[in-house]
Structures are given as structure tokens and as C-alpha cells.
Input
Amino acid sequence: MQVKDIMVTPPTIDKSAKISNALSIMEKKNTRRLLVTHGGEVTGILTMRNLAKELGTKKRTKPASSLPVVTAVTKNFTFVKPATKFAVAAKILKEKGGVLFVSENEKDVLGWITPNELIGAYDFTGRQVKEVMFQTTIITINSSERLVHARHLMLENNIGRIPVMEDGKLVGVISERDVAVALQEFKDHVPDNYQENQIKNLLVADVMSRNPITANPSSSAEDIVDFMVNKNIGLIPILDDSGKLVGIITRRSLILAIPTLE
Output
């Protein structure tokens, strides 16, 4: 299998467009990344994580509707040829993260491969959830914590989603999208001189998704992966028979579980 067999056409946006417009496109297309271009040339990638980062900085007191996309662009991508083998592509994403731009000349992008395309193309038949999940150093947050703390944990640990706990029990998940959208709405509606004080009132419980889909360690990895890919879900909490959180499956954990060439 070659990368040209699994690449998809990326949704795009101009670097001069506003962040509020970018969030609308991401919501409509159910994506956490956009290819940023200008004058027909690739500028970089706009990610939900970078939006959460930029919208949360103290210097960003202006409404999201007035901030250009270019303020949150990242260069975390790698060019690969269309004939690049699947195993090579998997190795690159393991080591570098980001996305792969498929191009013959490292200029014209024919398509891209995100972690979703990669894990969707791999056959996880016969493997159990416990073989592909992260089960050590699971970062969690309490629902009563401030939103800014959730944002800090995501950026500090380079993660996009965090399981939310109450009294030791899983009650939800907060994502980088939740953070970015909440910060956009906050900065669009709260005057500049009130933002520093009122941002403390935004709590994880206010924006998280409750009652997340979960799985058991002995569940079929193939079924869980299919569900994640088809529904574009980035994190599945893993609970044991007593309801205790014992692991998580993320796109990153699945990529690391794919055998690659050394």
C-alpha cells in the first residue's frame, strides 16, 4: 500500500481569513485541521490545538472574529512522494507527528494523510484494546477545575483530549475543540478589561462532553478503531469491569501500535 492510496483532499483556508471563520469550517467539515494557503502556495496547517493556544494567550484580547488565521499557523508537516510505502509513512508519523503532505515537488499538495487516514488503513484484526491503549501516566482533570488549567495541561503535554473525573469516576472528556470554541465565545462577548478576571469563572464542567463512549480492555481493537475513524473521535476512555479508568485509546496510541520498518 502506498500513500497515494489512502490520501484525502484537505479542507483549505486562506491565511488572511479570520479565526472565527476557520472554526466554522472545522465544525462544518468535522475536522481539527485546515490546510492554510495564500496565493496558491502552502503556508502551513491550522490546528485546533494551536487555536486553543492562541486564543488563550493574554495578548489575544481582541475578538476571535478579528484575528487572522496566520496567527495560529503551524509548520508541523512532512512532504512525502505519492509512491511512499505505508510502513514508511507510519514511521514518519510516529517520529515527527503532524500530517503528511503528498507531493511530487514539495510544493503542489496532491492530498494529505492525517493520523485518521493512517489508522483507518491498518488492519487491527485479532488485537484487543489492552494491546493498543495507553495505560501509564494517564492525565486527567476534575470537572471543577478551571478551563485555563485544562488548556495548560493540553499544551504542556501535547495532547488534544483529557478524561474528566468526579469523585474518582469518569464523567466526561474535554477536548482542544471544546477549549478553542469556549475561548472564542468568551473573547467575542467579554470586554477586554474584564477578560482577565472573568476567565477564571470558566470551568471544565461548563464545556466538556459528558457520558463519553468507553470500552473494556478486552474489547476488539478493530471495532473501536472503526468507530473512532468513522465518527472522527480522538479519545476512547478504557474502563475495567468495576468502572475504573485503566487506559485510553487515542490516535497516537494506535499509530504507535502499528509495526513499522526500523
User: Anything to note?
Assistant: The chain has a mean pLDDT of 92.
